[in-house]
Amino acid sequence: MADYRVVGKGIPRKDSIEKITGQAKYTFDIVLPEMLHAKILRSLHAHAKIVNIDTSEAEKLPGVKAVITGKDTWGMRFGFVDTPRYPCEQPVIAEDKVRFIGESVAAIAAVDENTANEALDLIQIEYEPIPAVFDPEEAMKEGAPQIHGEQIPAPGRKCAWQDWGVARVARSYNPVNNIGATVNLSYGDSEKGFAEAEYIREDTWVVPRTSHAAMEPHGAVASYNPLTGYLDVWLSHMGYELKRYWISKTLGIPISKIRVHKTFIGGAFGGKAQVFDHEIIASFLSRKTGKPVKLILTRDEVFTSTNNSIALKINVKKGVKKDGTIVGQHVKLISDMGAYRGSVPVCLFLCHSMRDAIYNIPNLTHEGVGAYTNKSTTMAKRGHGSQQMTTAIESQMDWIAEDLGLDPVEFRLKNLRQKGDVLPNRDTLNSYGLPDCIKKIVEASNWKEKRGKLGPGRGIGLAVSAMFNGSGYWPFTAGSIVRMNHDGTVTLYMGQAEFGQGPTTTTCQLVAEELGLNVEDVNLVDGDSELCPLDYSNFLSGGMFVSCKAGLVAAQDLRQQILKVAAEMLEEDVEDLETMNRRVYIKTDPEEGVAFDEILRYSIQKHAGDLLMGKGFCKPVPEIEFYPSLSKGSGRWTDAYSFTASIAEVSVDAETGRTKVDHIWIGDDCGREINTAICEGQLQSQAVMGMGDALFEEVMFSEGRTINANFVDYEIPRAFDIPEITTIDASDPDPNGPFGAKEIGECARAAVIGSIVNAVYDATKVKITSLPLHPEKIFRGLEEKAKS
Amino acid sequence: MELAKKLIKVAVNGESRELWIKQNITLLDLLRDYLGLTGAKLACISNSCGACTVIVDDMAVKSCSVLAMQVDGKEVFTVEGLAKDNKLHPLQQAFIEHVAFQCGFCTPGKLMSAKALLDENPNPTEEELRRDMEGNLCRCTGYKKYIEAIMDVAQHPEKYSAKEG
Amino acid sequence: MREFEYLRVNTLKEACSLLSEYKEEAKILAGGQSLLTLLKMDMLRPSYLIDIKFIPELNYMDFDEKEGLKMGALTTHRAVEKSPLLKEKFPVLPETELVVASVQTRNWGTIGGTLVHADPIGDIAPTLIVLDSKAKFTSVNGERTISLTELFVDFFATVIEEDEILCEIQIPTLPAHTGVAYQKFSTIEAGIKIAGAASLISLEDGICKDAKIALSAVAPVPIRALKAEEMLRGKPVDDKLIEQAAQIASTEADPVTDMHATDEYRGELVKVLVRRATKTALERAKTT
Question: Do B138 and A28 touch (CB under 8 A)?
């Protein structure tokens, strides 16, 4: 591994002082003059017609400035997916009917929160409940309540894909039998594969919804200036471009007049990527009242009315030779989609593509449906299909190994792809550190001495996962500027959203490394859509590989400009010069050189005012113009994959079924760790989050009502529960990554979950095929096993 | 009809304040809405997350669940009062050096809990510390670096004598 | 929160007087760790809050070898957790406090407040019950003292009259060779309790002179497992007897099925927790 000055070091974060002094401002903290407070009235019915809404009493309450219902936002539609095939179908405020408990039915802006809450109680709504359906398989049966009629795009309305350059007209979509999304793709011939197989195994897993549970609740502050037509917004988000697009689309405000201000964001994990009704509502209310409007969701609203992670029933059929060679696979998915599509159409496809870089499976069929149900929507959560699929596939890998008497590690290694492989969709594995990830943690954990030898109630398990690094999604670019300052420092402009994952710090490291600067000499302007260039967004795993890289490219551009001017000043060739500490010097005579500030002054004076600004941009997967077809999954998708292998060691108390995770080892290939401390933090985070997914996290419903919409009944890991965590860097630098770097924020969680599931099986030999593995489930499994 | 406000006297971060406040507000509301000290946050409404943790009379409390009227006559410390004379508190320094936080939303609460704990028990075991920090939820970090940073301050106080901010 | 009149009092007499005047229109505020959540959720709408938290005469811990412990109702959970006196005389109490909520809640919340709130999954109640604790109430009409077992009538409901204030908890001195233990089951360490059991064993000449077992989260109120106690009393206690007692205790529970567990599973847990708590209590009895 090359040794760099700044890259590869665990330096403190750039946002340290703001965050540890309490000065960091989140949307939650924004206060503006004359600001109103908004609250949303939410449906108490899972499926009902709205017969009548009477807001007159609410409007009369002193301090109420605006009351709106679906009548005011009639026809406005939004969604994460809005394609020619799948028109977006979610109303900003429910119109003629409600489709889930928690859906927005009215909103109030008032002088303070108490008044807004009081006014909500004064709104009279007459509902006519209609039969609801909560299970996706029930929903797909003949005679089930139809949640949506035909989804017909408004005349003349272009869908998002059309706005973004896909020359196909949006069609209407008829969700027959409540089916709102499908995927069907295949390579080779899986039936032929099964015919050749010497052993076939089929298992069905159920993975429920979980909550992202980011600490900062969702919310928005919107301030519309009626005199200029400008809308300023402060959002808790994952990338400002998508928000600007949708607010512009629904409210008819030109996108260039929508400014998303920089806020720190209190965690996201995928749950804040889409535009939300509450963001559009806050903006609408601000335009209506002419005053700033603040709309922050309470924690229960976050649970019930934003989104959960994607729930899937996964059937995996796998055919192998007796020696373990995989010859065929057929996956069938059913997703409990909720009342609106959310990101399910994308996830159904990603369930295949997140796994395809791992094992070489010559014959493969992947099909799935998303069925509408009367529950809240579902959205990407840190891996977006990877963790659900990894749970099902990696557990089955262990069971196949057990059935055939194969070593589980060798079985996996045997089937891995190789560096340089071209995948069926024509992605190339230019970097592939997975074998090394596996080998390193097998060694570090003493796997060989432990597997099968730990004694009763203890187990050890392994799983692997992969993650993409950005794909063709609007705005298809990330831009950055690095400019020279009077004193020889530089300022970096980058639009990325900072929600804890640290792109501001790592991009400064890239820039500092390129220009020979200390990180303190890289100033930062970030996260503001007016001050920063177009931004790719941070929910597509492209933060490092695409957006940070744009910063590096800008620094490279500036460096060339600096060297050219210095060369002129020093009368040397550019190749003979080097930069270090705000200075250019001659390689063969380091005492000779010129300072950056001198170079700037010279450039301005001698080159007609050229003030030295580096420009950089990066397109994810440059040669494709668009994301591959979601339903067919064909075509190039991403330029690099990250990989993780995880081993978990657990103790299961047989008397109660309670599982303790004793130790997690993670071997991760992220290309190159730009900031080792941040990378370690990402892996530790995913270890603990994965433990929650595996053992106790689940959003629970009763007749469509979320019954554990708080942190007492929905438990997330706390400080006492954390296991020993060992993180091992097994990176394989990617030629297209900035200094070889790839993503690290999303890949590991899936592998951790799979490894805990496999460890619990190793400890109990009880086959459980649903998450979470909470104590009662394990207890029952052990009880049944003891009886038989 | 709105009830009358009441007067309380409270020292906040070492400064005596006299404030006319509504009777039905929490200490968190007092800090954030009346004094503009937005370090303490609200991440739940079930008294579960600890993001609102501040120190009242040397005790870490969840300010969302303390009635503001109850701090009349008391001393309140928030994250904004940790750094003194432009010098960061050792815990703040340690959090920075260990890169202990990510999104930062839970960080002020964690700092105040940790400060109260170390002021009372300067030498906790790691198990004691992890148990005592249970009241502070975090979703980003997995807690490990926070615990390491706090233990580092406890075990190596000389590393973190007050430095320039 | 809705509006209310906040009234701070400095003496118990004042508090009783105000409570007698306002009755059901008023609520007593001590630490507020449970009360404030209810107010914020609009589940209670008192017109008056009588703040007793800072009444000095309600915050004390006095121990006498004959009289036992007398603890003011405003003693905080944290004070119980840290008390050297209690670590010496009733170590199970500081031990139990380690799993009660969080440090922040324990710093401000009071024993009295928790008992009156009567959450069926509370941790401190079963432990106090096996210690044979009593609760003393005061009102303008005088005082009365009851056994803690009689305090709870239903979930979140006690026998406290609307003009009474819980002012003291009394715990008799433990006889020699007495051990007490508490076992809590939750999915994660600081998580919501699914079942809990407290056990007290007193030995005399190797025979179990007294046994008390209290269960929580498996009935609307904390309950004594009287049949299980009976099984242990007067006998030499060994693993086999403890197992039998644990099985019996499980039949005395009346758990529900909710989002966290089925009634059957809770019943199974009672067996395990009673066994573990009783075994630990026995070991402690042997060494004290």
Answer: no
Q: Are residues A334 and A394 in the same domain?
A: yes
Query: A424: domain CATH number?
Result: 3.30.365.10
Number of domains in chain A: 3
Tokens at C113, concatenated: 């407040």
Q: How far apart are CA B43 and CA A214, in angstroms?
A: 9
Interface of C with B (CB under 8 A): 1-6, 8, 29, 32-33, 36-37, 39-41, 49, 51, 53-54, 78, 98, 101-105, 107-108, 189-190
Tell me what percent of the residues of chain B surpass a pLDDT of 90.
94
Q: Distance (Å, rounded) from C-alpha A620 to C-alpha A639? A: 7
φ and ψ at A258, to 5 degrees?
Answer: -110, 115
CATH architecture, domain defined by C57-171: 2-Layer Sandwich (3.30)
Which amino acid is located at A492 in the chain? L
Check if CATH label 1.20.1070.10 holds for domain B6-81.
no
| pLDDT score recorded for residue A2 | 66
CB proximity B121 to C under 8 Å: no
**Is some CB atom of chain C closer than 8 A to the CB atom of A56?**
no
**What does the pLDDT read at residue C62?**
97
Q: Are A633 and A753 part of one and the same domain?
A: yes
Give chain C positions within 8 Å (CB) of B113. 103-104
Whether residue B67 and residue C49 make contact (CB cut-off 8 A), yes or no, is yes
Instruction: Kindly state the helix (H) or strand (E) to which residue A136 belongs, with its residue range.
Output: helix A136-139
Span A586-598, average pLDDT: 97
Structure token digits, residue A641: 């994959």
How do residues B7-50 score in pLDDT, each as one tens digit?
Answer: 999 999 999 999 999 999 999 999 999 999 999 999 999 999 99
Indicate whether B163 pLDDT > 70.
no
| Same domain, yes or no: A238 and A106 | yes
The per-residue pLDDT for B164 is 46
B87-159 adopts what CATH topology?
DNA polymerase; domain 1 (1.10.150)
From CA C218, how far away is CA C257, in angstroms rounded? 10
Is the CB of B46 inside 8 Å of chain C's CB atoms? yes
Domain ranges of chain B: 6-81, 87-159
Neighbours of chain B (3+ CB pairs under 8 A): A, C
- Predicted structure pTM score: 0.97
| Distance in Å from the first CA to the final CA of chain A | 55
Pairing label, strands A724-729, A658-669 = parallel
Cα separation, C125 vs C223, in Å, equals 10
CA–CA dist C65, A227 (Å, integer):
80
Flag residues of chain C having pLDDT under 50.
none
Distance between terminal CA atoms of chain C?
50
Residue A344, number of CB atoms within 10 A of its CB: 34
Q: Which domain holds residue A117?
A: 27-149+217-268+272-305
pLDDT for A631 beyond 80: no
- pLDDT over 90 (residue A1): no
Interchain CB distance below 8 Å, B61 and C104:
yes
pLDDT digits (tens, 9 = 90+) for C6-53: 999 999 999 999 999 999 999 999 999 999 999 998 899 999 999 999
Task: Please give the pLDDT value at position A253.
Answer: 98
Confidence of residue B165 (pLDDT cuts 50, 70, 90): very low
A439 shares its domain with A497: no
Q: For testing the chain A interface, which of C38, C42, C259 should be mutated: the one with the most A CBs within 10 Å?
A: C259
pLDDT at B1 over 70: no
Q: Domain spanning C178-287: which CATH class is it, in words?
A: alpha beta
Query: Mean of the per-residue pLDDT values for chain A?
Result: 97
Q: Determine the Cα–Cα distance for residues B68 and B66; give it in Å rounded to an integer.
A: 6
Q: Looking at beta carbons, which residues of chain B come within 8 Å of A24?
A: 104
Mutate: best of B70, B78, B112, partner C, most C CBs <10 A: B70
Domain edges within chain C: 5-51, 57-171, 178-287
A contacts of C262 (beta carbons < 8 Å): 776
Residue ranges of B 87-116 with Cβ closer than 8 A to chain A: 88, 92, 95-99, 101-108, 111
Taking contacts as CB-CB distances below 8 angstroms, the residues of chain A near B81 are: none
For residue A773, pLDDT beyond 60: yes
